[in-house]
Each structure stands twice: as C-alpha cells, then as structure tokens.
Amino acid sequence: MFSSAARIATVFLFVAVAQLTWAAGESDPKSADADPVKALVGRLELEKYKATIKGLTKFGDRRQGTDRNRAAVDWIEAQLKSYGCSGISRVKYSYSPEGARRPSGPPVARDAAQGGARFRGARGPTGVNDNSALQPDAKLRQLDSQSSQPGEREEVYCTKVGSVHPDEMYIVGGHMDGIGWGEAANDDGSGTALVMELARVFSSPDVKTERSIRFALWNNEETGLNGAYAYVDQRAALQGKEEPAGSGRYPEPKWLGMIQHDMMMFDHGMPRSDGSVSKQQRPEADVNIEFQSLSKQVEGAQKLAWAFMAANESYATDYPAAVGPHMTNTDSTPFMDLVPAISLRENERGREIGAGWDPQWHQPTDLYATYNDDDFRLGLNAAQTTLGAIGRLSGASLIR
Ligand SMILES: [Zn+2]
What we know:
Elements: H1 4-23, H2 36-41, H3 46-57, H4 67-83, E1 86-95, H5 138-143, E2 151-160, E3 165-175, H6 185-202, E4 207-209, E5 211-218, H7 226-235, E6 254-261, E7 287-290, H8 298-315, E8 321-324, E9 341-345, H9 373-394, E10 396-398
Bound molecules: zinc ion.
Zinc ion (ZN) binds near residues 187, 188, 221 and 263.
C-alpha cells in the first residue's frame, strides 16, 4: 500500500516526466481524441491538394507581369474567398527588371552552395529554360507566350484573426509566380496549393485560433523576391498598431514568424554520375525545414524549425522531416533579420536543388502530369507538418 508521501512523490514524478517529454517535443501528451490539431490535420486530403495544384496549372507558368499571372492572382483570391478566409487584401508595388537586385540569401564563400552549404557527391545540370521551342505542347506554349512587361504588380493575402491575440500573427507563404515554359506545377504550384489548403482548413467556421495567421501568396519570387520585399518595405512599420484605435482590429499584427513553402513534391535523390535522376520518389524522401544560421534572428528561427520537426513527427502520415541551417533564395529571406523565418522544401535549396536534384526545376517538364501520388503525397506531408506546427503555435481549437 502507498503511503501518502509516496503517492505524492509518484504523482510529482509523473508530472515531471510528462513535462520533460513535452519539452523535448517527442510526443504529444494529449490523446488523439483530445488533440484538436490532429483533427484539423485530418481535414487535409490528397485529392483536394492535387485539385488545387491542377487549378493553378490552368494559368500556365504564371510568369509575373503577364495576363496569365494576373488571372491566377484573381483565381487565388476567389478561392480564398470561397473558403471564408477573412480580410482579403492585396499588396501593390511596381517591378522592373532594371531595378536594383536585393540579396536572395547571405553572402557565402565562393565555392559554397547558395545559403552556405557544402556540395557533396554527384551534381546534375541546373538553369532556367528561356526557349519556347522546348515546350512540345502547342497549347501550353501558346498559353505561356505573352512576355512580361515592367509595371504595377499585385499579390494577395488573407488572415485568420486570433480570438485572444489578434495583434500577433504567423505568416504562412508560398510564391504563385513561375518561369520556364511549363506549368510551374511544383515550383511553386505545390507551395501555393499548400498555403491555400491551410487557409481552407483554418477558415472553417468551427475553428478558433488564439493568435492570427496570415496566408500570403507572393508574386515576383522568381525575379528576386520582389513581392516579399515589397510586403516587408510597406508593412513592417505597421506591426501591432490598432486601426482605428479602440476597434480591436490590427491590419498588420506583430510578426511572430514567417514560414515559406517552395517546391514541395520531388525528392528522387542525388543525380547519378551521368547527371540523370531516378523517375521514382525515393523511399527515404523527407521534408526539408531550413533556417539561416547567418540571420540576425537565428536563435528564434532554429527554435521554430524544431517546433516544425516535432509537428512532423506527431502529424505527418508518410514522410519524416530534416532540419538544416542554410535557408536561402526564398521569400523568407527578406524577413529573416526581423523575425524568426524558415522555409520548407522537398530538398535543401543550396546543396541539393542547387546540385540538380530536381530536373524539372524552371523547365518545360514542370507539369502536373509529370508527378505521381508519391510526389503529391510529399507535398501533402509538408502541409500536415505546417498545419500541425501552426495549429499548436497559434493555439487552435475546435468549437463544438
Ligand atoms: Zn520557387
């Protein structure tokens, strides 16, 4: 029989162990039934994710500064509206290729991969296709044919307003423009669709979050992150201001973190010695979560990255995650010295994608039809990871 002192000691030990386990992010102490985030992650569906990517590819490569890009922005906005996402707004800015180019990542050693990583093993070809004749589909070639003009640009965002802290938010982003005379299905239809699917789930009327979440579909990523830079330039100073005073409304809640999604589907492994890449998703495929070790907010950024890793372990159904320190060439770069910023990708951007691990990258072959369900499912697992992490961080619950 337990003495009461022993009983108290046992209870204390149990609580201490439970807290340790939680702090390490190894498992969720709540049962599956009691975890509202698990229920929300369960609302993501492979077929819906695929349908959203397919919808984006109807606008071809969505190159910035074209009618097809503007039509895609309108379509994304209509979808967000149909999900019930609130406060739909646009950032307006102007772009010309003559403008000064701003950094896509930190300065690194000359022989390093972009972002600071070190190349390993075999490398395949990379580059941007600018030759229309390499698109064999005449209809798609025609759709992609209008050239980009300098001038006004727009990008759309919407917001889930927090019920307790409407003045603080996480930003969940993907870039909706593409290049290369294909359909930009993976780069970045896969990231754009992920952000849109999260907007759909979080905007459901029975979902409540304590903190706000903004869903942003950046434009002009492919020309040097111009759309994300425009957002930071125009809106950083507005953070946390109530407008009008006393209204409880915050047009730009204080930024708690920025999470970018770009190229989510194709992890077929390292190129072979002849530069070719396997046609099959490798069984070891993973979601790569990157922070930037040279950013001013590195401490917060890596903490955010580990929270995403833990969410992947709790919620992603098929593929694990890996964390790395070399985030680069992505719309989280303009944010990374101001706020903890990370990116999610199919592979590490610097040493893997930069070494030819994705042969569709900026090529006419980046088509919806190029990918199979093993590929689409990697993107879905990234969506499960971000939904799980942001669900926890924003304090998501279901209204019964
Ligand atoms: Zn991209």
